[in-house]
Amino acid sequence: MIPQTNPKAAYLAQRDAIDAAIRRVLENGWYIQGEEVAAFEREFAVYTGSKHGIAVASGTDALILALRGMGIGPGDAVITVSHTAVATVAAIELAGATPALVDIDACWTMAPAALEAMLKDWPQQAPKPKAVIPVHLYGQPAAMPEIAAIAERHGLILLEDNAQAHGASLNGRMVGRWGKAAAYSLYPTKNLGAIGDGGIITTDDDSLAETLRALREYGWRERYISAIPGMNSRLDPLQAAILRVKLGNLPADTARRQAIAARYSAGLAGLAGLSLPTVRPGAAPVYHLYVVDAGTRRDALQAGLKDRGIGTLVHYPVPVHLQAAYRGRILLGPGGLPRTELAAKSVLSLPLYPQLGDAEVDTVIDAVRQVWG
To answer: Predicted confidence band at 328 (pLDDT cuts at 50, 70, 90)?
Structure first.
């Protein structure tokens, strides 16, 4: 069996270093916040070219706290996409704001034209738009020059959802460096994954960073004294220590992901009706996922691969705006979200993780070709 993803393999590849990091924390005796977390924050900020890193308990919390830290809440609307993990939209609501969803482009990320159209035809009675969250889905950079220009023109705060795009770049500029802040997930299957949950926010804004550090710990600026209403969202030192080990290997892991993606693209080229990932000009994706578009044959392809011992997943099977928790109460762009709804019926994620060997990649390629016919 070849799984679609394999976080245990990531641990085994660095077991000695990770085990040593865990022992260091256990023997140190400091189990909340502390120097281990601060060191990871500094190292991740350096990796991303940011001034500040603020570690939190999850990628969802990273989005919530970033929104709250930027003063976004009740009475505000935040524009994002429906073709994403539900966490993106849930975080907007958990911050007290109203989600507004627009359609995607050929790279499965926010379509600038759809964003512009929604802002041009904004519903009169709706909460006023205050921020936009492009999602760098599957490790593919969104169309940031266009989105950033639209956001600036309309006076919107730009917050990047980098949950799946650690280290991706566009036109030589790393994602997460285009807006006021960026939110990352450190979930075990992510390109930089903990052994448990975690998240981090990056920003160059000193005032925002100070606010975020207070918000993640009850609003404390002085211990036990809440200066502002906050919450408990702390990355624990065990996860920070593990992440410091993994961060050192992230460039090599990224290169391996890119090599696997290139091998898939070469091996699957020419299959009529099977669309391979579209890469935006100037983009350097980090391939959190290698996603093909199989059209109406998606379910048959997935079943055929399962029969051959190949694990796959659908990211994501139901657009957020069509899920029971959100259906009918979210603002949608004019004309609806046709590309989003089509993608949910046709996308399929093939196995991809840095420890996947070339022989296994070739096995997947052969299996796809056999099933596709």
So the answer is: confident
